[in-house]
């Protein structure tokens, strides 16, 4: 499972979301560290951070769509390449 650790009103987080969309990243959960002291202590200066809970890997900002795709592939995630449509499964 993927998690994007972010904060409210964060322009870098908005940019990260756009890159994840371009990369066609699989479904992920957004976790906001606002009002969460433990998360703030760990990630406060690093947000946004994409975390792969399966492999306990983290990708810190800045990243682009190609970097996200390569990072996901390293972790065994299958992601359709940008510009190609995913297969139509019925």
UniProtKB/TrEMBL annotation:
Gene3D superfamilies: Glutaredoxin. This is NrdH-redoxin.
């Amino acid at each position: 499972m993927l998690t994007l650790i972010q904060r409210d009103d964060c322009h870098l987080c908005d940019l990260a979301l756009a890159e994840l969309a371009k990369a066609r990243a699989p479904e992920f959960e957004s976790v906001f560290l606002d009002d969460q002291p433990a998360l703030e202590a760990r990630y406060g200066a690093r947000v946004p951070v994409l975390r792969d809970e399966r492999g306990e890997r983290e990708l810190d900002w800045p990243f682009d769509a190609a970097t996200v795709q390569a990072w996901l592939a390293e972790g065994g995630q299958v992601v359709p390449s940008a510009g190609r449509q995913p297969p139509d499964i019925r």
